[in-house]
């Protein structure tokens, strides 16, 4: 999510440094192996039991320790008090799926779409952090404790699932983390990271999405499959090659989706706790969140010397990727899960431009770092520059690029060239204000 579209740094390493203005830094932080950290926490294991609201109290839930043997998943209603809206605007708690319609968009957003000759989608459902009150919201008890401590108000408990929780993945995660710490090649690092993330992926697998396809080469076999009550559709690949898809007639739901759910919830706990209880506690309104992804946070921070601040907060950071001659270099927390790294490894950041979720550019002293979803890396490196992002932001004109790709249709492989809109100038996850840089979260009291 891009919460503020543009920021320019002002510090002694900037070419256009203005000493009469306050020092302003841009820092891009990433959590070490966020999913690994969550998987090393107590996770649901056994003894699942439904509880009614009368069988458990809020006080009992709030007094449950994070590392206790009993855990809870709750369905609740929560109120987001208006007095929190300004403070939480850039990083609202308790994100949820929202349906964005043309009525949700303000005139600024509609004008941008009109300039692009694009009609707004009639209905678009997406995950949106917002400041609305929460109805029938499902969350882990550790998230509830954190949200309440940060000011949200619990209005109703609908139902509760109680379970026994254990750190049953911790040894596995720690082993892979240690192996990754001593890895000497990029392949080894990625391999041990995958061993962790693949486990999470299986906990969230939706087996209902699986399909049953038979490849047949004879008329007799094809007629038999088509005559089946489970027949769904067929595709002819060639004269003697047909794929027949049948619906699943039986399904064993054996994936621990409650574990995957808790892992996602605990990810939010670490990120929200770091943002509100560490960064915002130290800087207050002198820190502005520019964008966030699942495991990363990018800030604009007004302070005298950011390096001095990071030195005082080194217990939260991994500085092992900094140059060895950098004053902050330390391997004390190297590859420790749950610690935060500077993605630019100490390089002074000069400018940030964000256009929409997973679409931003960071200009540093030594180069550019761009992210754009759906565009090949080679195309991004050759055709997209930081200046293109700036032009798109200022002119509100989308940028189209050409890329070659290999496609496949009915198992016939071909190459093709396509034109693709790389940098759209529109983001409907936020309520964009007239300056086209500042935005509000949906549900903010100023929207009305």
UniProtKB/TrEMBL annotation:
One of its GO terms (biological process) is DNA biosynthetic process. SUPFAM superfamilies: DNA/RNA polymerases (SSF56672). InterPro entries: DNA/RNA_pol_sf. It comes from the Eukaryota. This is DNA-directed DNA polymerase. It comes from Araneus ventricosus. The lineage of its organism: Eukaryota, Metazoa, Ecdysozoa, Arthropoda, Chelicerata.
